[in-house]
Amino acid sequence: SQSELDYPFKLLEYFNGFRVSKVIFSACELGVFDLLLNSQEPLSAQRVARELDASVDGMERLLDALVGIEILEVETTDGTAFYSSTDVANLYLGKGSAKSLHDMIIYQSQTIYPLWSNMADAVREGRNQNEKTFGLPPEDVFQAIYRSEEEMLKFMGLMNSSWVLDGHDIVTAFNLSCFQTIVDLGGCTGALAREMVKAYPSSSVIVFDLPLVVESAQKHFAQENDAVVFQTGDFFSGEIPAADLYVLARVIHDWPEEKCLSLLKKIYDACRPGGGILLVEALLFENRRGPIMAQIFSLNMLVQAEGRERPPSQYTHMLEETGFQNVQVCRTGKSYDAILATR
Ligand code: SAM
User: Fold this and answer.
1) Which residues are within 8 A (CB) of 12 and not within 5 positions of it... i.e. 6 or more apart?
2) Which of 111, 141, 142, 214 to mutate to test the pocket of ligand 1 (most atoms within 8 A of CB)?
3) Per DSSP, what are the bridge partners of residue 248?
4) Which tens digits make up the pLDDT trace of 99-141?
5) Domain 9-92 shares a fold with domain 165-342
6) Range 187-219 burial, b when 16+ CB lie within 10 A, else e
7) Are 21 and 29 in contact (CB under 8 A)?
8) Does residue 206 carry a pLDDT above 90?
9) Which residues are part of the catalytic machinery?
10) DSSP secondary-structure letter at 283?
């Protein structure tokens, strides 16, 4: 086989990575996947363009690129190409798909993408680029993330959609049935908390988050006969409820070590003896040589927040420094992993 030195195939593929992402994101924003999902038959480019109020030429190129990356399928009849979704696109890419990742795509396309165009500055300065990208102060990460109601909803949609994929594996990574009262601190829309209730129906689960987030969660993400209860507060400046198990999912990775330690200390003090803490994060390998997804998430924390992704030993160290014991690590092999410790 040819070496990368003869011709840099892999490099060129990497350079193109952002364009491949944007092919999928644009199709999602235009509504291509929902149209195909709801159509009883394969559709021509002309028909898709008409239904979605787009140019025929542009739509044809987009649909062909989607066939090129094997997200759509095509068959030609009498010289006309008719497009349909693959099973994977039907399952994940429509707003109305059974396991929709639509909200994850919208956030990546509209918020993460502009932030990442300032990645070189983030690396140079060693801090987030909320000021350059959105004109907001770098100190208050969540003020930037929640800069408008629309942005808050988009972020909450992103948070919600991750647990469509990883929720069940995370809540069953350890047997948590011994914990009666579970509080999901920074629990956002309650998506992970609802997975907890499903797996442990005899536990009661409280979602704790900032007042505006809880208001929005109840307005836009509530379910009929919702099995989770919401409670408002600020886990840095206020009190946190008493519980047998505290869940911190993608919370520690937002913050620098000092803030993590003070939050963990507060949890330790509130935790009932015999109680526990469950951290949910994308764990780096101990030598930081992967997984690539966690390495990339860590750069995302640099450009958007104040934190980083960490290997298990750093979480273990913070937990033990705070007083927690019996730290157990479970890698799920998917995007997110779990760490359990007890008081
Ligand atoms: N745990 C959720 C998940 O994994 O889907 C959301 C993770 S999100 C990265 C961090 C969460 O922490 C947000 O829901 C945010 O509103 C919440 N948060 C940030 N600062 C907070 C504070 N001071 N008090 C309570 N919640 C806070």
Assistant:
1) none
2) 142
3) 185, 279
4) 999 999 999 999 999 999 999 999 999 999 999 999 999 899 9
5) no
6) bbbbbbbbbbbebbeebbbbbbbbeebbebbee
7) no
8) yes
9) 253
10) P
Structure tokens at 193: 């908390």
Q: Is the pLDDT of residue 1 over 70?
A: no
- 341 near 276, Cβ under 8 Å? yes
User: Considering the domain 9-92 in this protein, what is its CATH number?
Assistant: 1.10.10.10
CATH code of the domain made up of 165-342: 3.40.50.150
- Length of the chain, in residues: 343
DSSP 323: T
Look up tokens 């094997």; give the residue: 70
108 DSSP assignment: I
The residue type at 203: S
Spell out the domain ranges in the chain.
9-92, 165-342
Ligand 1 pocket residue status of 234, Cβ below 6 Å:
yes
CA of 341 to the centre of ligand 1 (A): 20
Question: Residue 22, Cα to own-chain centre: how many angstroms?
Answer: 18
Q: Is the pLDDT of residue 62 over 90?
A: yes
Q: What pLDDT digit, counting tens, does each position of 223-280 carry?
A: 999 999 999 999 999 999 999 999 999 999 999 999 999 999 999 999 999 999 999 9
DSSP code per residue over 67-103: HHTTSEEEEEETTEEEEEE-HHHHHHTSTTSTT--HH
Ranges assigned E (strand) in the chain = 43-44, 72-77, 80-85, 181-185, 204-209, 228-232, 243-249, 271-281, 325-330, 337-342
Which residues contact residue 238 at a Cβ distance below 8 angstroms, ignoring those fewer than 6 apart?
none
Q: How much is the average pLDDT of 33-57?
A: 98
- Reference 74, options 48, 95, 43; nearest CA is 43
Tokens matching residue 144: 């930037």
Ligand 1 centroid from CA 186, angstroms:
3
Q: Are strands 337-342 and 271-281 parallel, antiparallel or unpaired?
A: antiparallel
Structure tokens at 78: 């009498």
